[in-house]
Amino acid sequence: MSAQFTFRRSLRVILYMGLADVALKYRGAIGGYFWSLGKIALRFVVIFGVFGRYVAEAIPLYPLYLFLGLIVWEYCTETISGCIAVVFQKKDLIQRVPMPRILLPLAMSWSNMLIFFSHLCIFCLLLFISSAPLSWGILYIGVVTVHIFLLCTGIGLLLSAFAVQYRDVPHIWQVFQQILFWLTPIFYPYRKQGVLFDEVVALPHRLKDISLEVLIDLIIRFQPFALLLHNVRRSLLYAREVGIPSVSHTIGLTCIVLGVFFIGAYVFSRRSRFFVEQY
Amino acid sequence: MKPCVVATGISKSFERTIVPTVHVQDRVLRWHERKVYWKKQVFSDLSFTLHAGEWVGISGPNGSGKTTLLSVLAGLMEPDEGTVVRHADISCFFGLGSGFHPERTAAENILQHALLHRMSTNDSDTLIEGVVAVAGVSAHRDLPLHCYSAGMRQRLAFGLLMHTETSAYLLDEVFAVGDAEFREVSRRHFSVLREKGCSGILVGQNMAELQNFCDRMLWMENGQLTEESMKKRASPEARQGFACPANAPRRVD
Fold first, then answer.
1. A91 or B236: whose pLDDT is higher?
2. Which of A79, A273, B162, B202 is the most exposed place for a label (fewest CB within 10 A)?
3. Closest CA to B103 of B141, B137, B145
4. CB nearest to B115's CB, from A12, A24, A276
5. What pLDDT sits at residue B249?
């Protein structure tokens, strides 16, 4: 089915559909693009007002720390939810146009990435205004962005592959997303104790006398969203103090996110062949 | 010359469980319940060849599996058994205007469809102007599609079909588009495609219309695809002209 779609054409479809979706999303709305910031800004105000007084002193540049956490979280959740929703929104295309169906979630992820880039530009502006210390480590954001794109798209592909057959997948994801929000250090500090690799090696010992508190702590420290968010902050906010992640850390994380992406793409490609009859 | 599409021994069935299993929770909570399946065999062990330059019409009662067959031939669905080999570049139009976004303008919809239908978009302005002119909606070019009437939308989709350059077409219910004048334009277009040596499968309910265009007519009923049955059902006038019209070019294989 997809043999006639060359890589170049597929890329053009993804780029065009992603751009067109962004343009359509805010067309005709008063405030246009700035609506995309509304949800983040409101959440920022509430969290900063409620929790700021408890954690702001422990975290340098807390307003920027929080804002960065929120825009990364927004991209992750919007991408995964969007990938699940797109197989229903573009049902007409899936049912009637022979094309590689994987292009639809990929275009969705790309359109969210465009919005994420624009949010990052606003963050950089705030960073500049606040006279925060900058370093060359800021360039590492390119690597983390690729990591985030691969992880979120991979999870999105995996979930959307099952969403057509099991209609409550979007609801289950919404619940899981709420839990994940609290288990990701978006507004509270990330506790890192040492080199990640050493900590992973020491994990079996820690699991021997496991308690709920330890389990939650381990999830917060090792779940991929927390790791990636920590890396984003290391790159943009604390490159001078903490430094950017090491090469081995980067390679390890790249292997994990690539694995998630390819598993997601493989499962989606297999299951999407039966979408038409599952609708 | 190689045939455009060769389907060998293809079968297709749809299976649904009576006990709901469309939710993960159903699967988890009702795992112990015996699953009762409802199964519909759409067609089985069906073989079909679309030769190069040939136009085939398929008709039959509603629910007989015409669209399912076309979907399998197009690659939109997987057959349960058998193989479908496509030797030609195939373009599908199943219901005109599918995938159009009502909030987007004609130009935006044309561009997206051109990409999805593997049309050349190097000169997108010419393409858009051409499609809009053929569809007769130039005055609405920059309006979102929800400002169009249903007929205008279908004409726009047909305009896209007319600009698609491919060697084989799979078309489902595309004849009932537009007014008499536009239908004449579409007839002429199909004649041009035949002259070019393109191939196609036309699915529809209007047998007389299909017979005017097609070299071969097939009737689909109860999972069977037959030519003989078609002859019985066709009107006497249609039966006399069962082959393609005298002035139409013949198959070139």
1. A91
2. A273
3. B145
4. A12
5. 40
